[in-house]
Specification:
Layout lengths: L4 H18 L3 H7 L4 H10 L17 H12 L3 H21 L2 H12 L4 E5 L15 E5 L2 E12 L6 E11 L2 E7 L6 E3 L13 E12 L3 E2 L5 H37 L1 E2 L2 E2 L4 H29 L5 H26 L9 H9 L9 H11 L3
C-alpha cells in the first residue's frame, strides 16, 4: 500500500538510523553476544518504543501499523534489535496500556514511551512451550502482597540495564491465571544468565526464577484470573509485529543478495546474469512483497478495531517462512561468504528459524487459520 507523508517520513527516519547507526556495528555485538543498549536507547529517542502508546503518557498513539514499519526497517539490518523492540512494546508496554490501572500506567508508561526502559513478559515455562496455558508458577495473597514461586524460560529483555519491569503469569487460584508485575531488584526475583543462542545473539534472553518473591497486591495487572486471556489478546498484535520483523529480514536478504550478485563474477560475468540466480532473486522479491502485504493488511485491521486474529496468524506464518527461505537462498547466492558470520546473510540464516517458533509455532498458526475456515 502507499504510505502517507507521516508514515513515509517515520519509516525513512528509522531506515536511516538502521543503516547509519546499527548496520556498521551490529556484527560485533552479535559475535560478542552483547546487548546494544545505546542503540536501543537511541531508537527510544526516535519514538519507536512509544509509537503505539497513548499520547497522555508520552507516546504517539500511532498504532500497530506504524510499529510494523519501524520493525521492518530495523530488521532489514538486524533482527536482534528488532525483537528487543517488538517484545517490549507488543507484549509488555501494550499490556500495561490496555489492562493496567491508572496508577500503573502513570508509574511505568512515561519511561517506556520515552525509550528509557524495557518490559519483559514472562510466560513460557520449562514444562510449557507451545502449551503456554500450562502454568505452574503460583502466586498467593498474603498480608496485602503477592508471594510468587516458580520458573520461566526464554524471556526476552529480562536482564538488561534498561529492564524496568517483568510481567509474569501465575496461578492465583484454582483454574485461574493472572498477570503480576515485578520490578528488577525485588527480593526473591532471580534473573538467570544469558542463554547461548543460535541466533538473535545481540538480544537479551534469560530464565527467570521466583522464590517467595513478594510484590504489592496492587501489582496485579488487569483482572484477576484473566491473565492468559490478556496474553492471547496481546499475542495477536505480537504476531503482526513478528510478521513485520520477518518481512524486514526477508527484504534485507534480498537487498544483500542483489548487491552481491551484481558484483560477484564467475566464469567471466556477474552471477546475476545467470538465469538460476536471477530467478532465485525474483522469488525472494515475491516472498518479501507478499509478506509485506500480509502484515500490513493485518495491522490495518487491528488499528481499525476489526477482528484480525486469523489475519495475524496468516501474516506470521507466511512472513516467517519467507524469511527462512530468503535467508537460505541468500546464503546460497553468497556461496562460501554466506557461511561466514561477518556477513549479514549468515546472521540472518541463524536468526530466521526462531521466527517459525516464537509467538506461537507455525503449526499453531495453521490451526488458527483452519479454525477461521470452520474446519
Amino acid at each position: 500500500m502507499r504510505l502517507d507523508i507521516e508514515q513515509t517520513e517515520f519509516a525513512a527516519a528509522v531506515r536511516e538510523f538502521a543503516e547509519e547507526q546499527i548496520k556498521p556495528v551490529i556484527g560485533g555485538f552479535y559475535e560478542r553476544g552483547e546487548f546494544p543498549i545505546d542503540l536501543v536507547r537511541e531508537l527510544g529517542k526516535l519514538g519507536v518504543l512509544g509509537v503505539t502508546l497513548p499520547e497522555e503518557y508520552g507516546g504517539s498513539g500511532q498504532g500497530l501499523f506504524m510499529l510494523g514499519l519501524a520493525l521492518e526497517e530495523i530488521a532489514r539490518v538486524d533482527a536482534s534489535v528488532a525483537v528487543t523492540v517488538e517484545a517490549s512494546v507488543t507484549l509488555g508496554a501494550e499490556g500495561i496500556a490496555r489492562y493496567g490501572t491508572k496508577e500503573q500506567r502513570e508509574r511505568w508508561l512515561p519511561r517506556l514511551a520515552a525509550g528509557e526502559g524495557l518490559v519483559a513478559f514472562a510466560l513460557t515455562e520449562p514444562g510449557g512451550g507451545t502449551d503456554a496455558g500450562h502454568t505452574e508458577t503460583k502466586a498467593r495473597l498474603e498480608d496485602g502482597e503477592w508471594v510468587i514461586d516458580g520458573a520461566k524460560c526464554f524471556i526476552t529483555n529480562a536482564g538488561t540495564e534498561m529492564t524496568d519491569l517483568i510481567i509474569a503469569t501465575a496461578q492465583t487460584g484454582p483454574g485461574e491465571v493472572s498477570c503480576i508485575a515485578v520490578e528488577p531488584g525485588t527480593p526473591g526475583l532471580q534473573v538467570g544468565p544469558e542463554y547461548s543462542k543460535v541466533g538473535w545473539r545481540a538480544s537479551d534472553t534469560r530464565p527467570v526464577y521466583f522464590d517467595s518473591c513478594r510484590v504489592p497486591e496492587a501489582n496485579l495487572m488487569g483482572q484477576r484470573g484473566r491473565g492468559f486471556v490478556q496474553f492471547l489478546e496481546l499475542l495477536d498484535g505480537g504476531r503482526v509485529a513478528i510478521a513485520a520483523l520477518a518481512t524486514g529480514s526477508a527484504q534485507g536478504c534480498l537487498d544483500e543478495s542483489v548487491a552481491h550478485a551484481k558484483e560477484r563474477e564467475a566464469f567471466g560475468r556477474p552471477i546475476a546474469q545467470n538465469q538460476a540466480i536471477a530467478f532465485m532473486l525474483a522469488d525472494m522479491r515475491l516472498r518479501a512483497h507478499t509478506s509485506r502485504l500480509a502484515w500490513q493488511d493485518a495491522a490495518l485491521r487491528a488499528d481499525a478495531g476489526e477482528p484480525f486474529g486469523a489475519d495475524a496468524a496468516l501474516a506470521k506464518l507466511h512472513a516467517s517462512q519467507a524469511a527462512v527461505e530468503n535467508a537460505r537462498d541468500a546464503t546460497q547466492i553468497f556461496g562460501g561468504y554466506g557461511f561466514m558470520n561477518e556477513t549479514p546473510v549468515a546472521r540472518a540464516w541463524r536468526d530466521c528459524k526462531i521466527l517459525e517458533i516464537g509467538e506461537g509455532t507455525n503449526e499453531v498458526q495453521r490451526m488458527i487459520i483452519a479454525r477461521s475456515l470452520g474446519v
